Amino acid sequence: MKTSVIMKRIIIVIFLFCLASGVYAPATAQTYQAEPVTVSGEKVRSNGKVYYSHIVLERQTLFSIAKAYGVSIDEIKAANPQYKLAEDGLKKGEILLVPVKDSSVTKNDTKKSLNNNDYFLHIVKWYENLDDIAKKYGISQELLMKFNGMKDSTVKKKQRIKIPTHPELVRAEESDKNETGSEVEDRIKQRIEDIKEGKETTSSIEFKSRNSVKASLLLPFNSKGDANDNNLDFYSGALIALKELQDKGIGTEFYVYDVASSIPVTQERFQESDVVIGPLSTSDINKALNICPSDTYIVSPLDPRAGSLTGEHGNVIQAPSSNDSQYADLASWVKEDKRGGDKILLITEKNAKSNATANAIVSFLHSKGVEYAPLSYTILESRYMAERLRTTMTKSGSNRVIIASDSEAFVNDAVRNLNLAEHSGFEVILYSPSKIRSFSTIEVGSLHSLDLHVSTSYYIDYNAPEVEKFVLTYRSLFNTDPSQFAFQGYDVTYYFISKCAEYGKNWSHRIEGLTRLLQSDFQFSRVGGEGGFQNTAVKRIIYNPDYSISVVI
Fold first, then answer.
1. Looking at the domain covering 107-174, what would its CATH class be?
2. Among residues 95, 146, 384, 459, which is most buried (max CB within 10 A)?
3. Residue range 520-547, pLDDT digits in tens
């Protein structure tokens, strides 16, 4: 190699090294300037901590924001899990929560005295009242009045309201006696025993804290006769939810009514309730609606049939997702899964007295453009089904089968024939509404063998940490395991009271996003233009061949 060529390569290597190390920079290069960061004057409270609300400007970086506020980049990331800050960087207009140093309150803080400088200012906007401001920061209206030396709750536009950085300390100064966890548990146990013993159940149980939601629970306990165990379980789960909410700083005035024989609730009580949970049946909800004001929401917590009321009443919320939601999801699921060479079969019972389930599934298959091969028979024709399945199914792909029937005997027979077909070399994947899981005559092993796919309103993953915690708490309180009704009581109570506490009087406008709880998913949509809300969330679970069950969504 010529000497001149070697020298050129050495010069190039030296030049690249200088560029990489910053030793050399062209005279014409533009130096990148990050946008200066001004510390925000707006503060908000979330999960017991105070944050600056910072609006990201163009060319601002995590580093420059963290430096301006005196916090670490990791602290900003932790406060904003909704953004993938490490992957996407910052976007202009994003609102970041930036921790206010030393704003969190620990148990030991209640032993201190409050410094008069431990507050930030809120400028009242024209549309706000004191209750709106209190709920925005998770503080009671009474506490704000005390802290600001106000004689009444009247506020004016542009008025400056002091928001205590540590509201827990203000409350600690008001009362040195705080209810312990064991005292709350004793109170929960006593309430359940009162109902079992037939004592008066129309009463209030209050979970005190800095923020208070008023809620009413209407259940047919039948405390004067044989108390209803399912409703007691629901109530027990609700009480555990209230205790957890209290631990997070959300208090509740919880009014409990036994509506086994009547609706002993006044219009005034409905009026002052932020939310009403129950009654259960369609007829009892109708009775309550005759008393309840139109701006107070009634949550139907258990009976899917009560969903029919949402079309006529804008203040009814149907918590359990409907059968139609399951059927619609089932049709979407089988369409999403279908691959080239696959075949979709729909098995129905011929001459069944009620074909409501079959008709609904057929309707959703058609509406979603799913092509399928129909197969209908009676149990008396079962012995011919093995041959009919062999002539209908394919071996070039998977046979995705939907059994559209509520008859346990028929579904059991269809599952048996599908297992026979699988043993003959056909690949079978079964899709079904959740009712199949309640049929005791069907061997669970047969469902795992068919790779059962279920669209269901309820499913409890007992391996989930939050479920394990609930089960242990329930056992310690009631010396038994929680039923599905207990889980539902927890989910419904926790969800709606959380919404009331977080969003105040406008909480019903914030229930359309998906929320996952212990056994239910909630995603509400309004029926028509002026109807109530129905839950459309459905869980998808798969019975795997190794006898495990996996949750898809």
1. alpha beta
2. 459
3. 999 999 998 789 999 999 999 999 998 8
